[in-house]
Amino acid sequence: MKPTVRLRRLRQTPQIRSLFAENEVALRQLVQPYFIVPGKGIKRETRPGSGLWQLSPDLLREEVGLLSRANVGGVMLFGVPEHKRDDGEGLAAQLEPLRQAITESKSAAPTLPIFADVCLCAYTTHGHCGLVKGDKILNDESVKVLSAMSVLLAQWGVDFVCPSDMMDGRVASIRAALDEQGLQDTSILSYAIKMASAFYGPFREAAHSAPGFGDRKSYQMPASNRREARRELMLDLEEGADALLVKPAMSNLDLIRDAREACDAPLFAYQVSGEYAMIRAAADAGLIDFQRALDESLMSIKRAGADVIVTYAARPYALAR
After folding, report:
1. Long-range contacts of 264-267 (CB under 8 A, 24+ apart)
2. For the structural domain made of 25-320, what CATH number should be given?
3. From first to last of its 321 residues, what are the pLDDT tens digits of the chain?
4. What's the pTM value of the predicted model, to 2 decimals?
5. Domain range list for the chain
6. Cβ neighbours of residue 254 under 8 Å, at least 6 residues apart?
7. Candidates 106, 194, 217, 302; catalytic one
């Protein structure tokens, strides 16, 4: 008996497949990370094909202009300071390259959204995301410093402060600090679900942020805990987060779907450096087609429920446009 329902009828041509596509990954839904270093005239990819770019503030201007013209969704800036401190003091001096980068970005592309990381890992000698006493990462003391960092970044013009530290209570503290300074229009994109993952290696190399002792398992999430991820998500919403982020993306597609079903807030997912590197390495070894695999990986993140994807692919997609 021949089938009466033939789903292949809806797949016969590229135009038909496009007509019935349920999801798409558009440039406006991608955010490109950059690592901002002190100095001038610096533009280097940490490893060929890695997609991780270290830039001095003056050369970021050219990049954001290109991305804005291509209609990329935004840029996420990570600071790589010249000097590290472990006491949480001297933040303004450590953040000076970021201040310059924000000024250059807003001058070159005033409407392009700027996301700025809020964390201490790159700013301390020990490489942990908060202040440390002995071998303990301090929570409440760290939150005070993260709130002060957020205020500085907001005063300099970022659209979103992005706490990635995973300290308890930091979203509420940051929101209160911003509002107290009259910065009610600055949004908080919270890293609500951030795993203690093996996939951050290339990022830590670019940001000079690898932990000097121990690991980050006492504050980043264990990959085994799905219910705890929901609790983290809902707590950040209650504390005042405007948007939420899941990291890594490809190894947490189930949590992206859970987050999408749990709330209606804008949902970001971060295709992290190690995930991008795996695709690049497999393609360089001749095992897969890089572009097709990259496209498929981003579609899986979008299909899981992400509204916006932070990815090192945004820049090459813009260049190819």
Report:
1. 265/237, 265/241, 266/242, 266/307, 266/308, 267/243, 267/305, 267/306, 267/307, 267/308
2. 3.20.20.70
3. 899 999 999 999 999 999 999 999 999 999 999 999 999 999 999 999 999 999 999 999 999 999 999 999 999 999 999 999 999 999 999 999 999 999 999 999 999 999 999 999 999 999 999 999 998 999 999 999 999 999 999 999 999 999 999 999 999 999 999 999 999 999 999 999 999 999 999 999 998 899 988 899 999 999 999 999 999 999 999 999 999 999 999 999 999 999 999 999 999 999 999 999 999 999 999 999 999 999 999 999 999 999 999 999 999 999 987
4. 0.96
5. 25-320
6. 226, 304
7. 194
Q: Is 84 a catalytic residue?
A: no
User: Is 194 known to be catalytic?
Assistant: yes
- Distance between CA atoms of residues 173 and 253, nearest Å: 29
